[in-house]
């Protein structure tokens, strides 16, 4: 029920609740791309296409000779480097406009368009698939910057962990639902009278259509909020955005706690994202499972992650987000260690590993987003989230680079997976140094009861 102040009803909580319900649906929408495309199908399918074009088990990329098996990791690495250069400028643009929901929808629909073109990835033209994925992934990151920058506008500091966790839960539920349909299609493609390749291509197309269709809900349900505390910079929109970005970069040293968290996030999130993006390749190429089996494991991860996100949100309400994230990182260390020893074609250990990933995946990501939002000064949400997303989900660069190099050196995905433990250790050690109370005060935000 809304509060009454001076005899006048305060309708802000009701308006925020309505916007939150609409906002949840964008996680539902874009998770189709994150799971069906980036998480499961694109990597192995790109490898199969590249193997058709390979000469002596190598393909040429800008004069470099690469193993087809390492190609998805390098494609994600390049996409992330490109994001790191472009997303901060897009964040500055978003902070200077009141039309955040329109930017969100525009990037979503552009990304869905490029993802839909993956349907035409056939023969040996792996370069076409790589370019379309890079473009779609860049739009995915840009839309995520805008989406996350809306979180502080529609929730209070005390409510942010709950809202962020519920958004992630929607995301895993939506992504898992579509993945269930694609699991049936790919696993039983013969029953539908189509080849496995056609089933994969239809699944890729379905993710694009899902992303585009459900993006209409937040576009219609969110409200455009006017920008706050934007510096006056002369020139046109692009020139003003560059100017504000430069001012923000200079001012960031005034927020050392925020910078420390970003550095911690760089490491532990790169580890998380690399596990997500390369797990399907690991299961198919190293453990010898069929693509349909890995789709089933990802389906398990998705639905366990719904409960994991909500559970971690409840734990954070009692113990604080930082402590809860640290606990999650310990579980991630155990997961990548188990990946080193899991037997080939052993289904039960694989399912246990998938359930463990699902339990911790949604929680760590949801709480990292809400925790970081407390450390951001008002009016700079999109810019700061652009730096955050330069290292965010599906766009790791250190992690995928290390994974690809270790595989190239050892010709095995086992040491490549285990090498990621370094990212969780370094990320956890840096996170332990983050002074939450000081960071919230420096950013000028209200301090929640439990931090």
TrEMBL record:
Q: How does it sit in the membrane?
A: Multi-pass membrane protein
Principal place of residence:
membrane
One term of GO molecular function: transmembrane transporter activity
Please provide the record's keywords in A-Z order: Membrane, Transmembrane, Transmembrane helix, Transport
Q: Where is the Major facilitator superfamily (MFS) profile domain?
A: 257-451
Transmembrane region(s): 28-50, 70-91, 103-122, 128-146, 167-186, 198-217, 255-276, 296-317, 324-342, 348-372, 393-410, 416-434
GO CC term, one of those recorded: plasma membrane
* Protein location: Cell membrane
The protein's name: MFS transporter
Per the UniProt record, the source organism is Nocardioides seonyuensis
């Amino acid at each position: 029920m809304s509060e009454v102040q001076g005899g006048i009803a305060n309708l802000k909580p009701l308006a925020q609740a309505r916007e939150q319900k609409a906002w949840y649906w964008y996680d539902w929408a874009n998770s189709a791309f994150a799971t069906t495309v980036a998480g499961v199908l694109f990597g192995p399918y790109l490898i199969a296409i590249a193997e058709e074009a390979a000469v002596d088990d190598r393909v040429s990329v800008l004069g470099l000779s690469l193993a087809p098996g390492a190609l998805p990791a390098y494609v994600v690495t390049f996409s992330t480097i490109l994001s790191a250069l472009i997303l901060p400028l897009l964040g500055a643009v978003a902070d200077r406009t009141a039309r955040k929901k329109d930017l969100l929808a525009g990037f979503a629909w552009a990304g869905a368009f490029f993802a839909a073109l993956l349907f035409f990835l056939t023969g040996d033209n792996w370069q076409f698939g790589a370019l379309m994925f890079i473009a779609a992934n860049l739009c995915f990151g840009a839309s995520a910057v805008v989406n996350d920058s809306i979180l502080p506008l529609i929730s209070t500091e005390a409510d942010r962990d709950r809202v962020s966790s519920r958004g992630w839960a929607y995301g895993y539920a939506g992504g898992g639902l579509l993945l269930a349909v694609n699991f049936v299609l790919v696993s039983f493609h013969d029953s539908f009278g189509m080849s496995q390749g056609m089933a994969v291509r239809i699944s890729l197309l379905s993710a694009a259509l899902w992303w585009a269709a459900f993006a209409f809900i937040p576009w219609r349900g969110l409200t455009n909020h006017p920008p706050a505390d934007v510096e006056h910079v002369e020139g046109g929109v692009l020139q003003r955005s560059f100017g504000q970005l430069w001012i923000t970069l200079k001012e960031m040293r005034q927020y050392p706690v925020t910078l420390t968290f970003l550095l911690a996030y760089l490491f532990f999130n790169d580890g998380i994202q690399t596990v997500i993006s390369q797990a399907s390749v690991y299961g198919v190429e190293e453990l010898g499972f069929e693509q349909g089996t890995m789709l089933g494991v990802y389906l398990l991860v998705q639905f366990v992650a719904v409960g994991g996100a909500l559970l971690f949100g409840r734990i954070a309400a009692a113990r604080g987000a930082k402590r809860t994230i640290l606990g999650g990182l310990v579980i991630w260390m155990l997961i990548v260690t188990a990946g080193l020893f899991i037997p080939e074609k052993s289904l039960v250990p694989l399912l246990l590993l998938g359930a463990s990933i699902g339990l911790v995946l949604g929680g760590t990501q949801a709480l990292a987003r809400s925790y970081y939002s407390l450390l951001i000064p008002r009016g700079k949400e999109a810019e700061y989230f652009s730096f955050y997303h330069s290292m965010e989900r599906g766009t790791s660069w250190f992690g995928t680079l290390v994974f690809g190099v270790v595989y190239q050196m050892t010709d095995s995905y086992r040491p490549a997976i285990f090498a990621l433990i370094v990212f969780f250790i370094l990320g956890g050690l840096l996170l332990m140094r983050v002074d939450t109370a000081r960071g919230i005060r420096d950013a000028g935000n209200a301090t929640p009861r439990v931090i």
